[in-house]
Amino acid sequence: MARNKRPQPADEKRAEIVAAARRLFVEDGYDATSMSRLAKEAEVAPNTIYWYFGNKDDVLIAVLTAVMADVWPRYQDVAAEPIATRLLWVVGQLTDMSHLVTTV
């Protein structure tokens, strides 16, 4: 018999789905990530994702929002540095997120 999962606040479950999508989109790319694969990674039933997001594009927007929320404060740490330092930092970020960047 299947075990019941513990009750979980909607915002917490949504954040888990976004985190799973972020990992998959960054590692493999948006196009290579199916909703069923995302559901498996997030440990939810495939239709559960649609309780939180209208479609895959909505998941992408949530991932991009999360990435920007994480990256922007780190950029502020280098914002006063010389332009060469800032450019190298940006290139490093784009390289790390190359699969995601090609989607956008």
Would you tell me the structural class of the helices and strands?
Answer: mainly alpha
Let me know the largest β-sheet.
none
Instruction: Give the SSE string.
Output: HHHHHH
Evaluate the radius of gyration.
Answer: 16 Å
Named at the architecture level, the CATH assignment is Orthogonal Bundle
Count of discrete alpha- or pi-helical segments spanning 4 or more residues:
6
Name the CATH superfamily classification: Tetracycline Repressor, domain 2
Domain unit count:
1
* First-residue to last-residue Cα separation: 43 Å
Shape: elongated
- CATH top level is Mainly Alpha
Poorly predicted runs: none
CATH fold naming: Tetracycline Repressor, domain 2
Total beta strand runs: 0
Q: Overview of this structure, please?
A:
It contains six helices and no strands. With 104 residues, the protein is an all-alpha fold. It has one domain (10-103): Tetracycline Repressor, domain 2. Helix 1 crosses helix 2 (35-42) and helix 1 (10-28) crosses helix 4 (56-78). The model has no long low-confidence stretch (mean pLDDT 90).
Describe the protein's topology:
Layout: H1 10-28, H2 35-42, H3 49-52, H4 56-78, H5 83-96, H6 98-103
Helix pairs in contact: 1-2, 1-4
Q: What's the short version?
A:
The chain contains six helices and no strands.
Key terms for this structure?
mainly alpha; Tetracycline Repressor, domain 2; elongated; about 70% helix; about 100 residues; single chain
